Hints:
The protein has helices at about 10-20, 20-40, 70-75, 75-115, 120-130, 135-145, 155-160, 180-205, 210-215, 220-230, 235-245, 255-260, 265-270, 270-280, 285-310; strands at about 50, 65. It has about 325 residues and is mainly α.
Amino acid sequence: MSKTLAPTTGKKGFWSTVFAQRELVIMSVPILLYKILFSYVPIVGWTMAFQNYKPAIRSIWKQKWVGFDNFVKLFTGLNGERFIRDIVNTLGQSVLTLATGYIFAITLALLLNEIRSTKFKRIVQNISYMPHFLSWIIVTGMVSVMLSVPTSGGIINDILMRFNLIKEPIMFLAEPKYFWGIVAGSHLWKELGWNTIIYLAAMTAIDPTLYEAAVMDGANRYQKMLYITLPGIKATIVVLMIMSIGMILEAGFEIQYFLGNGLVVDRSETIDIFVLTFGLQMGNYSLATVAGIFKTVVSIFLISTANFISGKLGEEKLI
């Protein structure tokens, strides 16, 4: 009679597992060291948030300690008004970018999945992927030209005027109300095709017999997408959504910095630009560090909360 082997537990079981998977452990060591060096060691710099940091004093431990004064300064007075405005801008741009990105990426993935011609499907994929490999400096240059007046190559204004939708060119980059939409639209154009990759990969794991059974029951293509494909990739959508919520304060930096100007600064400046302005341009490293800490703490809270709620609702979790 065979004996059932109980799973090993405790310290002995842990080291037995490590030894059995020693090749994988050895392979992970360089990545672990990389993360420690570039993600955890720099946290020592957070001490600047509690100091009146002066670069002339080389040792970080010999700086003047001011406690939580910098945290108070960040949320009060003129700095507080500016930082709260930047929080609103960051959240607004992020939410708009994420919403449009998710909706259009999932829609494009569903449509690509229904294409039967492999050659045509590859052509569409290659065209939609290519903008991802362009740097933001190139993309912002193209966006700036497309949104300019028709005489300067502004194709958007030219099209709107040809269809009699507007009578005069719109100065898109000089009107604050358009800036969030420009950011979301630029991200959508650049990353749409790239964002569909993971959804298309998830669709390949769906059992083909489900589609065959649906056809026999008289389902059309749209019904198969709604009742088979979308439920089949729901776990992927939830996990990516949780990760995106954790990055909600990462609205970006390049596009806001390159397209922003004094006329739209009330809608373009984000937390990252606030940190750049106070840290590098004004030399207030302590206040910039506090702003960075705020963003990190809020991001950790958001991703933890989203992960917890997802688990309580019976959906997929990150951990």
